[in-house]
Amino acid sequence: MYMTNEEWEQNNQDYLKESYEETGFTAGGYAVHKLICGGCGRVFYTTIYTKKYCHSYWCGNQANNLRQREYRQMRRQDLVCQCCGKKFTPKRADARYCSNSCRQKVYRKRVTDAASTQNEHIFFRTVSRSVENQVPPPGT
Length: 140
Ligand SMILES: [Zn+2]
Ligand SMILES: [Zn+2]
Fold this sequence. Notes:
Layout: H1 5-11, H2 13-22, E1 33-36, E2 43-46, H3 58-76, H4 100-134
Antiparallel strand pairs: 1-2
The protein binds zinc ion (2 copies).
One zinc ion binds near residues 83, 84, 86, 98 and 99.
């Protein structure tokens, strides 16, 4: 059965680890590197110079996904809270406020604004009525 270098190394981590710790070279004369996998974070040993992942397919994919997730988060972080102006990372794509308290603050303010607009109407009516009352009755 054909085996890639990577598969061979995956099956011979113990040998590579020993070689690394004893001489730093394999019996075949290859330099052994101790690396931390960029995908799963495990320590692994390899003679392949360009390797970044213990499993280039699975861990490479994982690292790509992670990068994409970070990239998406980075773009999301550019959102500015419409209440306090703070930059924040929304949990939902349509979020507009950094926190529940900001959302509630805006909601409450909207309610208060609506209420005060109503109050103004009442106020105006009261004022105009009292002005009418000040007009002296005709005939005096
Ligand atoms: Zn890995
Ligand atoms: Zn806020």
